[in-house]
Design brief:
Keywords: Disulfide bond, Membrane, Transmembrane, Transmembrane helix. By secondary structure, this protein is an all-alpha fold. It has seven helices and no strands.
Length: 251
């Protein structure tokens, strides 16, 4: 009865790990899609193309974050596939590798979540700095290219110019923020950029929190199954050893 109860626990854990692995696979796809959106999304592309060589911090940061997200997505997908194979075939080494992958993703997700909560203003300031540089270049008539970049930002974020705390309008607002040129409401671009980035960072935080939960659950399941498979393999080896000894003695 004790053995049957233990086997039922193992079967239940296997089923849970298989279902969890499928969810982790979907999670990996979601993280990959979010990374692609961060890398190639129209809003980010507009800001990225407007960041000049003198303001390359955002461009470098944007590239690093995108590739980290893609790497995390690949690790999640590989860990989920490995977990499914290890569960079905009861592979001790593969189960240990799954536990290691889950632990690594857990640490990375925890760091990402903490950074997102505590340093979201860093990304916000970087994007706003890009807009400020383009805005000032256009106001100082640096080049026609800058004017086109400013127009693209206004069109993408559905905004126009910056609202002065004193209610004054600069020449840029008088020139570009008219219904004939830009058929949108005259929203403050700084506020629209902040609003867009807040929604994006909220999605990142939610996704990383879900990832942390599944990694903890996956670590618990894989550690239990690894122990069960390890004990089973030891018993099998001992049984073979006893049979070999008996055959050598002629019994």
């Amino acid at each position: 009865m004790e053995g049957m109860g233990k086997r039922s626990w193992v079967r239940a854990t296997k089923c849970q790990l298989l279902v969890t692995s499928l969810f982790i696979m979907l999670l990996g796809v979601s993280v990959g899609v979010l990374a692609i959106i961060t890398h190639s999304g129209k809003h980010f592309i507009v800001i990225n193309s407007a960041s000049s060589e003198t303001n390359s911090y955002y461009r470098n940061f944007h590239t690093i974050v995108s590739y980290i997200g893609m790497c995390l997505s690949i690790i999640l997908a590989m860990a989920a596939l490995m977990s499914i194979v290890a569960t079905i075939k009861e592979l001790e080494g593969a189960m240990a590798a799954c536990f290691f992958c889950f632990t690594m993703v857990f640490c990375a997700s925890g760091i990402a979540t903490y950074w997102t909560v505590t340093n979201s203003t860093v990304v916000e300031n970087a994007m706003i700095d890009v807009y400020d540089v383009v805005y000032e270049d256009v106001r100082n008539n640096i080049s026609s290219t800058r004017r086109q970049e400013l127009y693209s930002i206004h069109k993408m974020f559905l905004c126009c110019g910056k609202k002065s705390p004193f209610g004054e309008r600069n020449s840029i607002e008088d020139e570009m923020c008219t219904s004939e040129i830009l058929e949108i409401k005259e929203e403050d671009c700084l506020q629209e950029i902040k609003h867009f980035l807040k929604k994006h960072m909220d999605i990142v935080s939610i996704l990383m929190t879900i990832t942390i939960f599944f990694m903890i659950y996956g670590m618990v399941l894989t550690s239990f199954l690894w122990y069960s498979i390890h004990c089973k393999n030891n018993l099998d080896r001992k049984g073979k050893y006893v049979l070999a000894k008996l055959s050598e003695t002629g019994f």
